[in-house]
Specification:
Elements lengths: L3 H15 L1 E6 L8 E5 L6 H10 L3 E6 L9 H6 L3 E3 L12 H13 L3 E4 L17 H13 L5 E8 L8 E6 L16 H16 L10 H15 L6 H21 L3 H19 L3 H4 L5 H28 L1 H12 L8 H28 L1 H40 L1 H24 L8
Parallel strand pairs: 1-7, 2-5, 2-6, 3-4, 3-5
Antiparallel strand pairs: 6-7
Helix pairs in contact: 1-2, 4-5, 5-6, 7-8, 7-9, 7-15, 9-15, 11-14, 12-13, 13-14
């Protein structure tokens, strides 16, 4: 378990490099037994995501074949994972799961954190899969040894384009599951196991977005953005996930009721979103105004930043051009499934970049001496991180500059879009309030 003590900070660093990551919601208890339960959309990156929000070592349950996997077995074993023997992997090994539950109970009784993905599979479905009973059985079995209930904390993993480098990701920590009334019943009580499984499923749904189909995602994102731009609302990522989840549930009810008016509104929301996309704006940015004094100060700040950052980023782009371009085809050679694609990119890319840094440092040491080689070994990762930061900020800055010019040149068009957006927000609110379970927008 050599990797376990550093797995949480290492995971947080790796995910923040690969994604533009927001961590939000409640705080995982820093001490004592904790069972973390999460959805499972992104294969081996999901344990890294849960470890990143935990801020403490986490023992994960993982399917047994991963321990012997040629590419990731060393990582699974090094992170102190606990093997789970599934019927579809090897029916003859199912009896060994008694040891799995005992190991999880012992870890929790010792005050450790255990992580589990109760769906039992990594998948690309737009909603939560039916949960297995393992998480509930582990919690109830450990409660008998600990002497009562302990925190069972849901973690929602929400990715916009999970396989894409520098795409958006949100990790949402929810409130602990309430199960004190079940803790004394034990894992042998089937009714208690079923009830706790249902409560865990409800807790995970509260920190995730569950869609009928992936095609609904752009529409729901547009509707939530329009509403939030026109209504005082909590801007935190956790609140945004909650609004998206409630909007998805509202859409499902409307679709079930076959109400006609919502289809016309959905078409208008989608059309408004397309208009803003052409302009390079979000609903919130549409409402922003142009002030010459603020723009001048913004320009000075950007100029100062890029005067220092661009030379370093230019050097980084040159130095890391080869490993950056090599990562995608190298990852493709592993023939990953869709839910393994991000994992493959991150692992393969990490190895390629580390080897490249070591090679450049060795070259510097051979050419200029050992001190230069050691300095290169320390400086090259920093140059790479600065390059990423400058790249992201450049994209934001150029986008904002274009929007400033657009507001100055096409004020009338934007005023018309603002009026349409306010009307759409009003109609969305009226429609959502008309459903039997209205959205609880803050």
């Amino acid at each position: 378990m050599w990797l376990l003590p550093i797995f949480s900070p290492l995971s947080r660093f790796a995910l923040r490099v690969f994604y533009r990551l927001d961590v939000t919601g409640e705080r995982v208890p820093p001490r004592g037994p904790v069972l973390l339960v999460a959805n499972h959309p992104n294969s081996l990156l999901d344990p890294a995501a849960v470890a990143a929000v935990a801020g403490r070592p986490v023992r994960f349950l993982a399917k047994a074949p991963l321990f012997e996997h040629g590419q990731v077995g060393w990582l699974v074993r090094g992170a102190g994972a606990i093997p789970v023997y599934r019927k579809q992997d090897d029916p003859a090994a199912m009896g060994a799961n008694h040891d799995t539950f005992c190991a999880a109970h012992e870890a929790l009784a010792a005050g450790d954190t255990v992580g589990i993905f109760p769906e039992g599979i990594s998948h690309t479905s737009p909603s939560l899969a039916p949960l297995k009973t393992g998480a509930a059985r582990i919690a109830l079995g450990a409660a008998a040894r600990i002497g009562g209930a302990f925190p069972v904390v849901p973690v929602g993993l929400v990715f916009r384009e999970k396989e894409s480098f520098r795409s958006e990701g949100m990790l949402v920590v929810g409130e602990p599951v309430a199960w004190e009334d079940l803790a004394a019943l034990g894992e042998g009580d089937r009714a208690a196991v079923g009830e706790l499984t249902d409560r865990i499923a409800d807790a995970i749904r509260r920190v995730t977005i569950n869609l009928d189909r992936w095609e609904d995602a752009p529409l729901l994102e547009a509707a939530e953005s329009i509403f939030s731009a026109e209504t005082p609302a909590d801007p935190s990522p956790a609140a945004r996930v909650r609004r998206m989840r409630e909007a998805a549930a509202s859409l499902a009810r409307l679709r079930h009721d076959e109400r006609g008016p919502w289809t016309a509104l959905a078409h208008e929301v989608a059309e408004h979103a397309r208009s803003l996309q052409v302009l390079g704006m979000t609903p919130e940015q549409l409402n922003a105004g142009n002030r010459a004094d603020l723009a001048a100060r913004w320009f000075v700040r950007q100029l100062a930043f890029f005067a220092l950052g661009v030379p370093i980023a230019a050097a980084g782009a040159i130095l890391f051009f080869i490993p950056y371009r090599a990562t995608r085809p190298a990852a493709a050679m592993t023939k990953p499934s869709h839910d393994m694609l991000a994992t493959s990119k991150l692992l393969v890319g990490s190895v390629i970049h580390l080897v490249w840094i070591a090679a450049l440092a060795a070259l510097a040491g051979w050419r200029f001496g050992i001190v230069a080689g050691f300095a290169a070994l320390l400086a090259l990762p920093a140059v790479g991180l600065v390059t990423l930061h400058v790249r992201d900020r450049w994209q934001r800055a150029t986008g904002e500059a274009k929007r400033f010019l657009l507001r100055a040149r096409r004020r009338r068009t934007l005023d018309e879009l603002c009026a349409r957006q306010r009307e759409l927000a009003r109609r969305l609110n009226a429609l959502w309030e008309d459903t039997r379970e209205p959205l609880a927008f803050p």
